Amino acid sequence: MAFRIGKSVMLYFGKDLEPQFIFAGLSFLLIIGPLLRWYVRAMTRANFKLLYSYLLEALPFALIFVLSFFVNKSWFDESSKESIALFASIILFIYFHLAFYIFWSGRAVYKVNKRLDKLIRTKSQSALLRWLQMLLAGFVLIWISYVFNLIEDTVPYIVGPIVYSVVIYFLSYKAFKLKVTYLNGDVFDVDDKANLFQQIHKIVMEEKVYLESDVSLASISKRVNSSTQNTSGAINQNAKQNFNDYINYHRIQDAKKLLTDTNAMKYTIASIAFDTGFSSLSSFNQAFKKFEGMTPSQFRNGKAP
Length: 305
Hints:
mainly alpha; Arc Repressor Mutant, subunit A; 2 domains; 14 helices; rod-shaped; Tscrpt_reg_AraC-type_HTH; HTH_AraC-typ_CS; HTH_AraC; DNA-binding transcription factor activity; membrane
């Protein structure tokens, strides 16, 4: 951004600026777009790593930047239709290139924001999303100011650098105010698991799926649209239990109510075991003793182990 605005300032206040500087300055718009996208990905994804394949997006910048050193003043001959067409084509490509990356980055932020709409957000997540939205709004404002300048001088050229500078100073101020300099995409990773667990727990408790004898990690994962690995990790991290213990724990809580219910005294322990989702009496006894330290019979009779 500094190189880009530097070109604009030199062009406005300097006289007979060499075309090499003009094209070199314009070329920096071709790297600002990819840098913006990489930054947004880094701030919305945990453990982000810049892959070598991403660097391919910097090729347009590298190409125009290198070619800028071979530009000479004859290219700007206003009587040459070819020169005018070439220059106009490059300008349009550069500005549409940046617009595409602003849109691409905005779409990524929108997806994260939409995904968290129905979930509890942390303060860090809210601050980071607000910052990214302001950042993108600033880029849109900068883009508009420069594009309007191209349309028959609708906006004086100096307005572009001024808007650019004001936006950058404002964004810098907001970045420190929101403390986003201390945040990264990890804030979404930790809380993604917490939010995923909320979805899992809601299904398990409200629909009492733990009473189903065939409930499995795969079936729960499918219902929350997550992988079995992520579902298992969310339960381990938030419930401090593995999937089987998590399900069995809730089964035991229901079994305890039945074992102490006077209206249910006529039911055998085996029937209670099957009613609460266990596939066998032995697995019920084993799970009950694990969580309560006594057998179901001892619990029903009020006897300590």
